[in-house]
Amino acid sequence: MNPVxxxxxxxxxxxxxxxxxxxxxxxxxxxxxxxxxxxxxxxxAMGALxxxxxxxxxxxxxxxxxxxxxxxxxxxxxxxEALRLMIETDRRADENAMLxxxxxxxxxxxxxxDDAGKVQIANPAARGLLEGLVVRLPGMADAEWRLIExxxxxxxxxxxxxxxxxxxxREVLLHAVALPRFALxxxxxxxxxxxxxxALADAGGPPPPSPADLRAFFALTPSEADLLARLCxxxxxxxxxxxxxxxxxxxxxxxxxxMAKTRASRQADLIRLALASPSHLFxxxx
Length: 286
Prior knowledge:
Blueprint: E1 8-12, H1 21-33, E2 36-45, E3 51-59, H2 68-105, E4 109-114, E5 118-122, H3 124-130, E6 134-136, E7 145-147, H4 152-155, E8 162-167, E9 170-178, H5 182-186, E10 195-202, H6 211-218, H7 222-232, H8 237-244, H9 248-262, H10 267-276
Antiparallel strand pairs: 1-2, 2-3, 4-5, 4-10, 5-7, 6-7, 8-9, 9-10
Helix pairs in contact: 6-7, 7-9, 7-10, 8-9
């Protein structure tokens, strides 16, 4: 279908707006130096995007062909649509790059695959958990994987849900959610395929937040952040004191300081707060 043919404005040697006369004569002089003579331009509105323009020039001393005006008039709606598509493509590319960057920074394991099990995107956290759950596609790059045969029918069934999968000496928890149709082209998945977002986790539990992340998020001292990280990892105050070579009294004083800064009333609340906080979501310590 041809685009709407409207709003084409012509600009030519003998019909130049007064506001452009000064600049126009300068342009003509420069163009003549390049062997270009008679000028005919066309402009078309692009709404919030401004205007699009296209021009043709004849050689010096040679008139433009009679059909140039009509050709430009007919061409401009197509130029407008092509530019709109280019701008939209660039916008989507920038958006996709931003989404991929965010996925790569997220410390939680996320991946996207189609219903054939081909992994389209996997962030660094997911790649480690996917080892053993995928096979390399023949002739493809290392980053292009397909879920193993036994996993695909279970995970990518008509009603995908949570499941456990033994991967060597490690058990992986997986959850698949069908993506809506609008997400298919966003992730470069063919329109006729179904797409799924995969969340993965080590059944043994995630690693505790790093001291650097906790320090940045809660404004703790290095020692206080180390204490909180160890508590999140299952250690108690006495173990922390022994590891740091400080007295139990000093360790308990530091714990009180941490609880005051985080406004936690109990140690259990403190640990729950640290684990629930987004302090380590993007891995700022990296």
